Amino acid sequence: MTPDPIPLRSTSTLECRNCGAGAPVDEHFCPQCNRILALGRYGDFFTFFGLPRRLGLDPQDLERRFRDLSRKFHPDYFYNAPPAERLASLERSSYLNDAYRTLRNPAARIEHLLAVEGLPPAASDGGSVKVPPTLLEEVFALNEELDEIRELRESGGDEAQLRARLEQARAPIARKREEHERRIGELSDRYDSQAGSPAAERKTTLEALREQLLEQKYIANLIATIEREVATVG
What we know:
Elements (H helix, E strand, L loop, with lengths): L12 E3 L6 E3 L20 H4 L10 H15 L9 H21 L2 H11 L19 H19 L4 H35 L5 H35 L1
Helix pairs in contact: 2-3, 4-7, 5-6, 5-7, 6-7
């Protein structure tokens, strides 16, 4: 069994505004005087939680860490503290909430890991919507079917038959979604197992994850389109 990778520690340091000592940027409190540190320039939700950069996280462990840090950062504990410490508690509390929302969502977790590792996000280039090559056949067939269904609806077609055709059109897209979810799970497991592998191998896995996530988003949009058509049928 491959051991969990050790959480990455940053070599960057922060200067404590209270005692002037240097503290690793991953620390929340000054090791010298134990005062809360300014947030500084952060960007890695994993290390903020003291977690390794891996996609398979224990939800209960993540929640435990979240609640523990929430208590430590809570502004009520800094009500009578100097302004800089009050501000630091607010900044860290806000950042903690953002980090928790991201890491508890598997897709958002992948997106964040892509950003941390310097890869482009799983979004269409330039904001344009492009059909992933692997989905061309399904998209073409779906568009043809939806066009026919719209024509039948406008001409007063039977609603029960239209709904049945929409459900039939949804089936292959839903199967594609399940297939992509399985593939994303497999790639996530592969990435986690590559903790000691060359960077090029890990990057290849991340790039494959990015492509799968792009396709998954497009599939979600297709299903949403079908749902809107179902709503118009009544």
